[in-house]
Each structure stands twice: as structure tokens, then as C-alpha cells.
Predict the 3D structure of the following.
Amino acid sequence: MSGVPLTHILYLSTALFFIGMYGLFTRRNMITMLMSIELMLNSVNINFVAFNKYLYPEKLDGIFFTLFIITIAAAEAAVAIAIIINLYRSHNSIDVEDAAEMKF
Amino acid sequence: MLTDFFILLKQELVVTAIIFLLLFVKLGKDRTNESILNLVNGLLLINFVSGFFGNQEGILFSEMFKTNPLIVLEKNILSLAMLIISMQSYSWLKTHKHVIEFYLLLLSTLLGMFFMISSGNLLMFYLGLELSTIPLAAAANFDLLKRQSSEAAMKMIISSAFSSALLLFGISLVYGATGTLVFTEISTHLSNSPLHIFGFILLLSGFAFKISAVPFHLWTADVYEGAPVAVTSYLSVVSKAAVLFVFVSVLYTVFKPLADVWYNMLFVLSLITIIVGNLFALRQNNFKRFLAFSSIAQVGFILIGISGSSQAGTASVVYFILIYVFSNLAAFGVVSLVSAVTGKENIDDYKAFYKTNPFLSWVITIALFSLAGVPPTAGFFGKFFLLMAGSSKGNYLLIVIAALNMVVSFYYYLRVVKAIFMDSNEQPIAKLSIPTLPKLAMYICVTGIIVTGLLSVVYDYIFSLSAGL
């Protein structure tokens, strides 16, 4: 297998993971926070596919795991968006700073 | 082969059957809430009782699913807790519009926990974990019109999604390092190399989020306060217990080669969990928030038990969780009844509670004594065995600090007892009439608190089951 070495792909996925984490911690809009979490999950997908293809091509464990992650991420986003819509009805905002009645 | 499938998956199949039955009840003609609640409680009783018969040991789906007597016992504990919670939430659900949906959500999470406990493969474990958290976030939003409820659900879904992303990154690194997802094969490939340890740390922080150990506990109190009481008690007992069961077995089987590494991590985690949980519990006034921080402190004690050797560690953790189910649910039973009838949730509202409601006062007092660990109740024996298991490695500093923290915890538990029995109040909570089912649930809890501590058979039985691990 010539071309891109595995380490380059791992750099990409790790960078993507921490960009997602940074986005989650700094963004105040709930939808954007959800998008950041999707970034983190996608970096995991890249990891799995790369490991599977480069290191263990004889079994398809990693690829199957990726399929399940994509499915569950969709389910998670569906529930999260339903919750956010309900929160918007009572708070009239999807900024996390406005949903801070309970502290400490 | 097919009979194997039905016998080994029996507990999961019963839960699935109940879920489908409830879906059909939902589709059918309108029923009164009372009849639905009686039906559901009957079904949950069947689910709990059927867990005791015809169990076998075995492996299915090329080691994806495994079961043994200890796992069956753990599932039975969860079924019992589910039954008690359902009986306690009777007075809240009696007037609620969406009774069946509530049970659909909770039973789906119960199914997820069953698969998670039985998992022998990281994929199965992940699927079970997600099935047990996503519906729970929806359940936290069950008071659709309350602002706090939706805030709690939002906090819960975002933090649980973040924690599962951490967990997944850890799993992907472990997969990259070992090339397999099967628990038994992973442990043969692990070593002390940095990649393995980094993967393990990410996995551990995912777990710590779910059991709300301290650096990852910030979502707990908010979610517990905002969610409806029934969901709060489910979160604090059932979902925490399920994750702890898996955590124990994963640490002792999969990550056995890294035992030296995780012993130190658990040492730090358990200490700060106990200390921070206790300090924050001191200043709470909302009862649910108070119980949230007390449950964080309890998790710290459980982590001490886990840090011990495998058999004593597993046995003491399962035994403690059995006691914790009874004592925490007894406390939540009273809180949920009072909150459903009067809407009051503050500790100050409970002043002079004894004058109007002596029975409920005694229930909550026994529960708090057990949580604190006062000798005649089971909580004392539970904590005693946890500390015994933790001391087996000879690290007495940990045990001394934990024991000192038990003294601190006496202060805030007994403060509530003092408010109930001794303080005066102009407008105490009026005398409440207790429906049959919640009353029965309280009797079960109180009997459990007293009996599991005094009968040494219980601990011996659990200890003999955990030998094989």
C-alpha cells in the first residue's frame, strides 16, 4: 500500500478530535455544540477505518464499528435537537448562557 | 442452538416483550391511568420474578454476549430497582398524560443496560451504553412545560454525547493497538506502552462521566435537580449501578495487564470524589441536589472498593450497590411522594415533618442512616466491606481519609434528620395519604435496608458468585 502513510491520517483524526473539543467548549450556540460533537465522532470514524485498512485488513471489525457510530450519532442528534426545540419554546433562545437557572 | 438463544437471552427478551406489549396497549383503546399503572407494575413484577428461574451460563454471537450467575444477579438487582421506582412514581404518574411513553423510555434504557452488562465485545458495550443513555435524556425532559426540566435534559444529552465521544476515541486507540474488539483477546495484547495507556485514560474518563466521579461530575447535580423525581431516582440508582457493574468487570478482565496504572488513577479519583462530593453536599438546600452530591460521595467509596483485589472488590461493590438501591430509593420514595402532592423539594420545607407524617419520617430517617453508614443498618456493612476490599493492597492512607470523610458525611445526613424531628415550623407539610403501591415500595426498601445488613448469607452468596472473574 503506497501513498498516504498511517501517521498522517492519525494526525488528521487527532486534530479533528481536538478541534471538535475546542468548539464544544467555546461555542455558546447549542446547535454548533452538537456539530462539534459530530466532528469528534467523525474523527473516531476516521481512526477506525484507517486502523482497519492499514493494520488489520483481514477482518472488518473497524468498518462495522464505523457504521454503528454513524447510526447512533444520528439518533443522538435527533434526540438532542428535539430537546433543544423544546428548550427554545420555554426559553426563546438556544444560547447555553440563557439556560443557566441551576448552578452549583 | 435455538433453545440456547432463548434461555441465555431470557431477561432481555422479557424486557423486549414488555416494551412491545406496552406499544400495543398504547395503540389500543384509551384506558385510565390507574389500569395502565396496575398492568405495568404487574409486568415489571413478572420481569423481576422471572429473572430467578432457568438461568444458564453461556456465550452467544461469537463472544459478543455472555452471561453467568453474577451477571444474572446484577440484572435482577436492576429489575428490582426498576420495579420499586415504578411503584414509587404511582402518585406522580396517576395524573400524567403520557404514562406509557414514560415506561417505554425507561424500559428501553433497562434493555440497553442488560446488554451492556452482558457484553463481551467493545461494540456491544458501546451499543448498550448508548441505548441506556439516549432515551434517558429524553426522559429527563419529561416535564415538558417546566423550564428546569428541559435545561436538565439539554445538559445531560450534551455531556453524555461528549463523554461517549471520549470513550469512542479511547476504544478506537485500543482497537488500533490490539487489533481486536473482544474483551478476552484485548487483555492478552495489552502492555504498558503509552498508546495503550492513553487509550485506557480516555476510556476511563468516559466511564467516570457516566458514574459521575469528580472531575467529571458537574452535570450530575443540575440534571438531578431539573429532572422529574422518578427519573432522578432512576438516574442515581439504576443507570449508575449498571455502569459500575460494567466498569468493575472491564477493569478486572480487560485491563488486568494495566492494573498498576489504574490502581493509581482510582486512588486519586476516589479521594477527590469523596472529598468534593461531601463538601458540596454540606451546602445544599434542595433535596434532590443534596441526594445528587451524596450519591457522588458514595461513588467515591465504591471506587475505593474497586481498587482492591478482584474477588473481594467485585463482591463488595455488588453488595454495596444492592444496599444503595434500597437506601437511596427509600429516600427518593419519600421525596417523590412529597413532591408529587405538594411540589415542595427543599430541606427547609421538611422541618417538623415528624409531627404530621411520622411514618414517612421514619422511612427517610432509616434511609439516611443507611446512606451515612450507622451500624444497625445495612449501609454500615456495605461501607465496611468496601473499605476492607480497598485496604487489601495495604494503602492505609486511602482508608483513613475515607473513614474521616464518613464523619463529615454524618453531619449533612443528620442535619436533615434534625430538621425533620427537632426543628419547629409554622407551616409544616400537611398529612399525606400514601397510596398502596408507594407504601409497599417503602416497606420493601426498609426491610431491605435492615435485612441485607444482618443476613451474612447475602454477602457470602455474592462473594461466591464473583469467584470466577
Summary: The first helix of chain B runs from residue 2 to 8.
